[in-house]
Amino acid sequence: MTPGELRRLYFIIQTFLSYGLDELIPKMRITLPLRLWRRTLFWMPNRHKEKMLGERLRLALQELGPVWIKFGQMLSTRRDLFPPLIADQLAMLQDRVAPFDGHLAKKQIEKAMGDLPVETWFDDFAIEPLASASIAQVHTARLKESGKEVVIKVIRPDILPVIKADLKLIYRLAGWVPRLLPDGRRLRPREVVREYEKTLIDELDLLREAANAIQLRRNFENSPMLYVPEIYSDYCSQNMLVMERIYGIPVSDVAALEKNGTNLKLLAERGVQVFFTQVFRDSFFHADMHPGNIFVSYDHPEDPQYIGIDCGIVGSLNKEDKRYLAENFIAFFNRDYRKVAELHVDSGWVPPDTNVEEFEFAIRTVCEPIFEKPLAEISFGHVLLNLFNTARRFNMEVQPQLVLLQKTLLYIEGVGRQLYPQLDLWKTAKPFLETWIKDQVGIPALVRALKEKGPFWIEKMPEIPELIYNGLQQGKHLQQSVDKIASELQANHVRQGQSRYLFGIGATLLLSGTLLLINRPEWGLTPGWLMVGGVLAWCVGWYKTR
Question: Is the same domain home to 349 and 447?
């Protein structure tokens, strides 16, 4: 490790210990070496004993920076894994991270707008931020030209060096995983970190976020399920984003939703539908759907509509991955574990020599207990952990392109658990996936392919005779080349046989000449001629091998 990486690692350990987070280490025999290591090498005391554990964890993650804050945001949705005192504190990382100076944000906005005063473009600019998160914070204002209310998002200053330092350290640690764990190589840790790095660096480019939001808004235009605020791209730059200000109820504020008369069952079902629509219909999904980025409209609570913001991280899947995922989900819903096992083999996610029967039985052992239960009794976290252990037995490699999808699924579960614990996830998702599969392989898919590729085929139709002729000519030349190669291989095979024969003759003559020379010196020149003949046979054999 470089001195800089060692300093950062030391700072991380120091931060955790100064907040007393070693309390999170369970007192078990397996953790005894770790606890002894902490007592002997790191004796730093807990400097925040007056604070509760959840608050100390939040403050430590906040102090370590955006990489750790993102981790805390994901943990905040897993209320099945953490008590409320911890989960509530981690939820504050979603939009209540300590802000930076509003006057500094104002200077950044002015610099992005050509060093002109904020008042040139905006009225009622609020120096106090409306919300602050791990990467950026937002300020309210009003467009001077139209009077529309907007929010201005500004990247935190000097954040990139901190992110790069942490990622460099994480890369180093990921490089140790294959050496420390027996199946570490299968986990593909560096590929997973690289995928996380890409999403995190992309989030620093607000022009990319603006484009993502515009695309997502177009995908759900006039949809009763999801509303995406309008982006004012003329005012956007790499470090600044301007979008429509929205008013809604935070999706995590269940009490406010109930007070507004929101149909929570329909809202929870629509959350699942929005997710699957983004993944399978559009292949473009919001991959940072923690509660701080999701609101619910005050309007028509009986027909609730989500409002999605912060599109800095999006994911997409190729056609093959979507197909395999959809078929896997349907097979899971139908309890067809044989199909699940075969799909994993067909997709290449497990080795082709995997015993399908054993894999099927292992999957059934993990998944059968979760069916016909409400969401409140199902923990995807535990299911994923069991599936992970099952996959390890069958040498299944981690798929980096699915990491974002897995994280988003965890967010969806957390939100769904808060809104309507009795949600039947399978009943909600299965019809959607079955319809999508039919659309991909049935008559509609054929008609769609004809519409998409018909003009291209019509354009190429006059060239078909020439293409056929060229194909036949190439086939003829290919056959001639194959015949020539076969002839050369046959000739080479014959030469190799002759060479081996001559080497054998040469060895026999040399051995015979040597024995005669030793045992029959009176034979005169005969042994010498035999040895010369052996050498000549070897030379001819060597020449034929060239």
Answer: yes
Nearest to 288 by CA among 217, 202, 207: 202
Q: How far apart are CA 446 and CA 469, in angstroms?
A: 29
Instruction: Assign 395 to helix, strand or coil.
Output: coil
| 287 & 325 share domain | no
Domain boundaries, position 31: 3-94
Final residue of a structural domain among 314, 341, 362: 314
Q: Which of 365, 372, 316 is nearest to 341 (CA)?
A: 365
Give the pLDDT of residue 280. Answer: 86
Q: Is the pLDDT of residue 43 over 70?
A: no
Examine the domain organization and report whether 506 and 395 are in the same domain.
Answer: no
**CA-CA-CA-CA torsion for 103, 109, 111, 116, nearest 10 degrees?**
-90
Do 151 and 287 lie in one domain? The reply is yes
Give the integer Cα–Cα distance in Å for 176 and 533. Answer: 62
Q: Can you say which residues are annotated as belonging to the binding site for ATP?
A: 130-138, 153
Average pLDDT over residues 279-302: 88
Binding residues: 130-138, 153
Query: What pLDDT, on the 0 to 100 scale, is given for residue 440?
Result: 72
Q: Report which of 361, 328, 345 is spatially closest to residue 395, judged by C-alpha positions.
A: 345
Helix (H, G, I), strand (E, B) or coil at 364: helix
Give 429's DSSP letter.
Answer: H
Under the banding of pLDDT at 50, 70 and 90, the label for residue 85 is confident
131 beta partners: 138
- Per the listing, tokens 């056929």 go with 468
Mode of pairing for the β-strands spanning 306-308 and 226-227: parallel
CA dihedral in degrees (320, 323, 326, 329; nearest 10)? -70
Per-residue pLDDT at 537: 77
Q: Do 136 and 278 fall within a single domain?
A: yes
Q: Which of 256, 219, 214, 250 is nearest to 234 (CA)?
A: 214
Residues 412, 402: Cα–Cα separation, whole Å: 15
353 is an active site residue: no
d(CA 19, CA 55): 9
pTM for this predicted structure: 0.69
Cα(199)–Cα(404) distance, rounded to whole angstroms?
A: 9
pLDDT, mean of residues 322-334 = 79
Residue 407 near residue 74 (C-beta atoms within 8 A): yes
Q: Are 228 and 245 in contact (CB under 8 A)?
A: no
Domain total of the chain: 4
Q: Identify the active-site residue in 95, 288, 310, 321.
A: 288
Over residues 200-238, the pLDDT tens digits come to: 788 889 999 999 999 999 999 999 999 999 999 999 999
SS3 state of residue 249: strand
The dihedrals phi and psi of 286, each to the nearest 5 degrees, come to -70, 115
**Which residue is it, tokens 């001819």?**
540
Please name the residue that has the structure tokens 């009003």: 142
